[in-house]
Fold this protein.
Amino acid sequence: MSTSVEDYSLGLTPTVSEPFYDALQGALADGNPNVVGIAGRAFLCDNASGQWIRTHINVVEQRNVDTNRDLLLLPQGVWRQTVSSWHKGMGQTNMDRNDSDNERYYKSWNINPFNKWRFSCLNKTNLVKNLGFSNTSRTYIQEVNGDLFGAGESTVFMITDFTTWTEQTLTVTGTVYDVTTDGEYFYVAHDNQVSAYNNNSGTLTLVTTYDAGTGDHTMVLWSKDRLYTTSNNQLYEVTSGTPALVYTHPQTAYRWVDGTDAPDGTYFLGGAGDKYQVHRLIVDESGTLLTPTVAATLPEGEVGYCIDEYLGFLFIGNMSGIRMALLNNGLLTLGALIETNSPVYDFEGQNQFVWYTNSLIADQYYSVSNNDQVFSEFPKGTSQGLGRMDLSTFAGGVASPAFANDLVAYDQTINDWPEFPLTSAEQVSAIASDPRGTLQQSITSVTTIAGVSVQQDGVSGRRVFAMAGGKLFAEVIDNASAGWLEQGILSYAVEDNKAGLYQMAKWMPNDGTLYLDYKADGADWFRSSRVLMSDTNVSTGNKTLDGLLFSRFQPRYVVLPTLKGGSPITRWEMRSIPAKGKASKWQVPVMNYQELDINGVKAIRDPVAELDFLMNLVESGRLFNYQESGVVYSVHATGFEWKPESLTSGGTGWQGTYTLIVEEIV
């Protein structure tokens, strides 16, 4: 039996007694078009049979998802991604990985995401008071019985009119170090004293001063009907007016920095160097104070700044973020670190939320490449203000509540947003030189005023926050300002190219403006749609993406809201199709014979061994190289057909044509 392929003469030789040379490997090296390489081994193809075929295949046919939710009610081959709630907060970079949470997002600015099934813009803030302190002088504020009390440098102040924001002031000896309240009086730790103030018929009045012994008193706390203060490493109770030593920490360099009342005792935050702890203080059955015990040790390097309790949870602010802590029989279970870009100095609880100082909001707006007309609505760089946690939703695991950037400081006197002046390196240097100091122009305190009279969107009161230097910023009710939200990276869980068909958004009736932006594969931001949200429409309709080719897509929603309500957005959707790749599929008929003759040169093989070699490629599913006409492809075997024709000369096995089916991997 013999066959001819083009001008190469092929034939089965009758015996194996003649000397031979493996001409197939040589023919492969010489570029013989009828010899192919399969996993590094040369084989002769049966070109005369018409079964040697190369065809096109679609690279992507199925989407890698764990649920069929976004595959239903769609034309075949069309993929959909939808988002209809953002209430689990920011901090998720990829929106469609297998373990992604569809109700979290990447980052936002001046956005309230915490109402389920919608997000909306927050109110603007205004600079309402500038007391003219030094820009490293920590400013404290506290709502007391409906009034706003505060202190900084050597000044105590009170504001009762939240329209004019006129303040009354008194001077204290030394420097103000800390403040607290029992709900009736405003206590200020300064010099080696603690002074109590109140609103006496509209006048800021010094009620009494406690002599707390020698040394500066850098902390003061009212907890469980007792007044505490500190001097160096010593903790005192001064409720009676006479200082009573409660505890002396064995480390002379140890300093107490803050404290809080809690359901199961009083907790104090303190430390030395970069090692900080939380101590718990309780009383026995007779009311006698017991020796404080360590309830938690912060991870090394987390310099503590503040501690507070709300709704049975503790919150610890440190140089790089926040840790929530769960009460556990006198011990604390610390949650994961919620990272911030600067130290956290204060907390404020209201309703289901806890606000925190956010001196450096690094998330900033980047202009689009195609005629950006709204860039003036946002800071040119970073900004300052507050962050917020939602205690009804735990998105990041145990003791890890949902969080997001919140209100942003705005100075209407200069029509600009204050910007934190220190780089990360400068912050680290300043903290290293003075761990208990206040970084210049930091947001150092936050409180709530008008908690009964103001109710908006499920939240009570108005937030007021203070900046080092004596600047006070207040939320302006029913005066929403522009905001944006970046959803995160969308890839449909595959890195292959997709073609964008359209995106769509829905909202609750309002008269604001919505901009749909995107960034594809690291390119600049691009504005694809501008939509006027009128009372008669609640959807953009399908806004075309004109077949945009992308591997990774990042959506951004920019909202210019109506003043009242914040222009709630309720849904976003995008549809795409997989881009067809340039992959190939081959059907390769291999002549698996004991002897082949190529132009008079014999190639001798063992058909049984060759069959095992080829079958292993199919059964293992491994990748291998397929070489054809000098071009090498990365492939895997997906099938075969074996047609035995005759026994080998020794009768040890069959020889014939083995058709291997391979697909290219791209």
